[in-house]
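Is uracil placement plausible here? Inputs below.
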Amino acid sequence: MRLDKFISKATELSRKEAKKVLHASEITVNDEVIKDGSVHVDVDNDEVMWAGEPLSVATGNRYILLYKPEGFECTLKPKDYPIVTELIAVPEQNRLRIAGRLDVDTTGALILSDDGKWLHRVTSPKHHKPKVYELTLADPMNEDAQAHAVKQVANGIMLEGDTEKTRPAELEFIDDTHARLTLTEGKYHQVKRMMAYFGNKVTELHRASIGDITLEGLEKGDSRFLTDEEVAGF
Ligand code: URA
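Reply from A.M.:
I modeled the complex. Tokens:
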């Protein structure tokens, strides 16, 4: 953004008044006095000051998809591992909040934003966006056990400690230890608890997609901004 525009956006000054302030040598960019209003400033990274006071303009909200690797926590106050926001190279990354956490050992699609209202919509159970999980089981399940689990999951199951059944979900076996589970809700440790219901244990868990949003083109640890269309889809 042009410096004179930046100044008038960040203050109540008109562009003409901003020019006067510039000519009076009152503006510094990264500690250097700048008098030329046509100079370009990077609104996220340059430090613009007026008579020693920092100026800033609202840069708008950020909507991000991260391919979460294992070994990162989704809590604001991580205890044992680094926080996922460390992986995202944007200014003020500590303002980002997570929609639908993943466990430390889970990999996959994670949505973050600093737009509180939007996050509320994303996590609202009203939206029922399907989330696809790929999982590996500790113990092989034979065909009968698989058919039983598929049926139970489709009807909803009562997890330990819950008062409501899980919403109808789709479980699809790839082989006797690998399955794909599509959920439209996000209860605490839901996938692991659902498999524990069938006496099994999840050894690997990956969230492949959230609604139409997939990890295509991203490597573990990479992130990208969501498109306007993806943001509007919630
Ligand atoms: N369900 C789980 O059990 N863990 C996750 O990380 C996500 C869903």
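Short version: The chain has a mean pLDDT of 92.
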